[in-house]
Amino acid sequence: MIVAQISDTHIALDTPDADQRIRDFALTIADINALDPVPDMIVHTGDIVHNGRQDEYAQAVAILAKARAPVYVLAGNKDNRANLRAAFAAGGYLAPDSDFIDYAIDDYPVRLIALDTLSSGSNKGDFCPERVRRLIDLIDAETAKPIAVFTHHPPFEVMVGPDRLHFETPEIMSRLRQALQHSGRAVAVFSGHVHRAAAGHVGNIPATVMPSIATTLRKGGYPAQMKMRPVYHVHWFDPVWGFATETRIVGTGPSAASTCDFDAA
Ligand SMILES: [Fe+2]
Fold first, then answer.
1. How far is the CA of 263 from the centre of ligand 1 (A)?
2. Neighbours of 152 (CB within 10 A)
C-alpha cells in the first residue's frame, strides 16, 4: 500500500506568488501521477487554500481532479470547514452534518483516520474532549487493521524551527496522544502545518511532518536548484516493517520503486 502525502498548498488568488502556488500544486499532482506504481491514495493534510474562500477551493478542486489516485483532504487552520466540505462533497467521505472534519477510510490494508485539529481561537492546534470521543469511536469501529493517522498540526514536539509546540497547550497535545495510543494499532502519524520536514514520536508511534508544497512558503534551507521544486512524501506500507517514508522532489525522475532493480556487483 502506497500513500502520497501532500500538504499546505495555500492556494490564494490575489497574492504576488498566487501563480507559483498554483503551479507548485499542479506540478506535484503531475509528478504523483507519473509514479510507477501509482499510489493507492493521495492525502492532503490541510491548508489547502489560504483564505478559506470558495473561489480558492474551486481552483484546488480543479487541480486535484487531475489526480489518478483517490484524494482525501483534511482541514488546516487556513481552511474553512463549510467551504471545504462543500468543495469536496463529491468524494462522499465527508459527513455533511458534522461539526468536525474527521473520518476513517477502511478500503485499504491500513485504515486511514483523518483528524480535525482546528482551533477556533488561534492558528495552533486544538483537540477538545468531544473530538477525543469521536477519535475513540473511529478507532474502535474496526479492530483488526493497523491505522495510519493524518493530522494537520503535528501532535508532538517538533525539534526543528522556532516553535516546538504546534498545539495551544501541552495538555491538549497530551490528550490527543493518549487517545491515539488507545488502540495500540496506530502505526504512524503524518502531519503538515510546519512547512518544513521533521520527524518524531507520538508516544511510541513514529510520526513525520512534510514541508509545504507551496515553495514560496517553505521553511528551512534548500539548495538553489530545489528552490522552485515542491517536495512531497510517499509512505510505503509493509505488513512486517510498517511505513517507510520516501521524500520526493518534483521533476527529478522516477521513484525508488522503479530504480531498485540494480545489479549487485
Ligand atoms: Fe497550517
1. 43
2. 27
Cα(261) to centroid(ligand 1), Å:
39
Ligand 1 centroid distance, CA of 193 (Å): 4
Say if residue 66 is exposed, middle or buried (CB neighbours under 10 Å; 0-12, 13-18, 19+).
Answer: exposed
The confidence band for 260, taking pLDDT boundaries of 50, 70 and 90, is: very low
Q: In what order do the strands lie in the sheet with 186-195?
A: 103-105, 111-114, 147-150, 186-195, 205-211, 198-202
pLDDT value at residue 161: 87
The pLDDT tens digits of the residues spanning 132-191 come to 999 999 999 999 999 999 999 999 999 998 899 999 999 999 999 999 998 899 999 999
51/12 Cα distance (integer angstroms)? 7
Tell me the CA–centroid distance for residue 91 and ligand 1, in Å.
23
Distance 31 CA to ligand 1 centre (A): 23
Tell me the CA–centroid distance for residue 182 and ligand 1, in Å: 26
pTM of the model: 0.95
Helix (H) or strand (E) holding 82: helix 81-87
Residue 46 CA, ligand 1 centroid: distance in Å? 7
The angle formed by the CA atoms of residues 109, 211 and 204, to the nearest 5 degrees, is 50
Q: Which three cell numbers stand for residue 173?
A: 497535545
- The Cα–Cα gap between 210 and 233 comes to 7
- Dihedral sign, Cα of residue 96, residue 97, residue 101, residue 102: negative
